[in-house]
Amino acid sequence: MGLGHTGLVDAEVVVIGAGAFGLSTALHCALAGRAVVVVERETAGSQASGRAAGLFKSVQADELRTRLARRSIEKAIGFAGWAGVPLEVTRPGSFLIARTAEHRELLRRELAESRRWGADVHEASRAQLAGGLGYYRAAGAEFALWCPEDVYIEEPVWLVRGYLDACRLHGAVVLENEAVTGIPVTGGRVSGVETALRSIAAPVVVDAAGAWARMVAELAGASVLVAPVRHQLLITAPAPEVNPADPIARIADAAVYLRPARGGLMVGGFEAGPLPLDPREQAASFTAADVPLDLGVLRAMADQVAAEAPVAASGAVADHRGGLLTMSPDGRFAAGPVPGLAGLWVASGCNGSGFSSSPAIGEALAEWITSGAAPPGMTALAPGRFGRLPEDVLIRRGLWEYAHFYDPVGGAPARS
Ligand SMILES: Cc1cc2nc3c(=O)[nH]c(=O)nc-3n(C[C@H](O)[C@H](O)[C@H](O)COP(=O)(O)OP(=O)(O)OC[C@H]3O[C@@H](n4cnc5c(N)ncnc54)[C@H](O)[C@@H]3O)c2cc1C
């Protein structure tokens, strides 16, 4: 594989987008011995992946996602062993907390299911919750799960950097500040990608363009059904009640997550009235930095847990960031081959868990691409599973999945 500054080059796999999904897929393809080129419009990890909270969650809504989440935790912890470069992972575990009768029921169900699917999850005693979280004053009536497997990566760019270094170590080429502008199709199959600087011939092209995945698929005349939706978080100034060793806390009824960060507290959440934002309707120069942030939304979410976690609601804001999630109509990833267009693959539909699921999604996709056989369960994530959907239905379902991130069962919107 030769890469001059301009002109034609060849690869076996071209990945579009150097976020968590794209870099992980590229790395795993390189580890499988493939000649890989990643093409990134901005800089690696500069969009959703570099803005993530860095949280990994072992309790998931179904068996496949539980397996992918736990495999990802295992791969993150053991990163140096398989990727060949170090990665710092904080392993404090997490509490999943419910303060309403409805959410207590939900967590009881999740406890039983998650244990059946292999996750290490337990009911937390009142004493364990009261003594285990310095920044959260338990009222005493909560029902809580203790999830010892849960981890986080303090700064999301650490995972991006790990993937990048590992990609280069294993021979993948990563081109930055170079947008894919065309995906030629010949005889019903893609033949590579085009940028302003060069054409890259390849039998396999992976669309891992995040919130731009639909735009990129359309370059090949294909359709990828994901709805980009804003997500934001804040980090408070350092506060004495936040012990850096404290676990993660997720308060299911408020749809709020908390964790120690930079000496303060990270506060994020999934609001009931989320904001859809389609880059196809924005200026060509639109990036995550242009996503309109709204501190009021985060403050309103933090107010819901003000009694238990006062620093979340009243701490001075040291950082406020956001970006776009790619929501799919059923809340599951869109990962696999695009039907009807040989050679085009998709890694998208992050549904708010793309950062933390990227190690296992990249591994599974690379296995599928290089062996031709779908790893167990992965056909359930095939990007063509929605058929044709009217735009308003896609967005309505995506927004529902966003607003129900912590309680995905019950009350799903009409499937039409
Ligand atoms: C505030 C916030 C907090 C979050 N917290 C978590 C969390 O705790 N845990 C978790 O698992 N997930 C979290 N997420 C979600 C997570 O960030 C995403 O699921 C994940 O980053 C998706 O990765 P990606 O590779 O699909 O997208 P991205 O990281 O956006 O990467 C896509 C890349 O494609 C590039 N691209 C687009 N068009 C082109 C083109 N034409 N040519 C070349 N390149 C192109 C873009 O520039 C971009 O870099 C959070 C997201 C946000 C915004």
- The secondary-structure class comes to alpha/beta
How would a textbook summarize the main sheet? 8 strands, mixed
Count of separate DSSP helical elements:
11
Point out poorly predicted stretches: 410-416
Overall form: globular
Question: Which value, in Å, is the CA radius of gyration?
Answer: 21 Å
Sequence of strands across the biggest β-sheet: 5-6-4-15-16-17-14-18
Descriptive key words:
416 residues, eight-stranded mixed beta sheet, 20 strands, 29% helix, disordered C terminus, binds flavin-adenine dinucleotide
Word description of this protein:
This protein has 416 residues and is α/β, with parallel strands linked by helices. Helices cover 29% and strands 22% of the residues. It is built from eleven helices and 20 strands. The chain has an eight-stranded mixed sheet with strand order 5-6-4-15-16-17-14-18, with helices on both faces. It is globular and about 65 Å long. It starts with 6 loop residues before the first strand and ends in a 13-residue tail after the last helix. It binds flavin-adenine dinucleotide.
List the helices and strands and how they pair.
Blueprint: E1 7-10, E2 13-16, H1 20-31, E3 36-39, H2 63-77, H3 79-83, E4 94-98, H4 101-116, E5 122-124, H5 126-132, E6 143-147, H6 156-169, E7 173-175, E8 180-182, E9 185-186, E10 189-190, E11 192-195, E12 198-201, E13 204-207, H7 213-219, E14 227-236, E15 248-251, E16 256-261, E17 264-269, H8 295-303, H9 310-314, E18 317-327, E19 334-337, E20 344-348, H10 354-371, H11 391-403
Parallel strand pairs: 1-12, 2-3, 2-13, 3-7, 4-15, 13-20
Antiparallel strand pairs: 4-6, 5-6, 8-11, 9-10, 11-12, 14-17, 14-18, 15-16, 16-17, 19-20
The structure holds flavin-adenine dinucleotide.
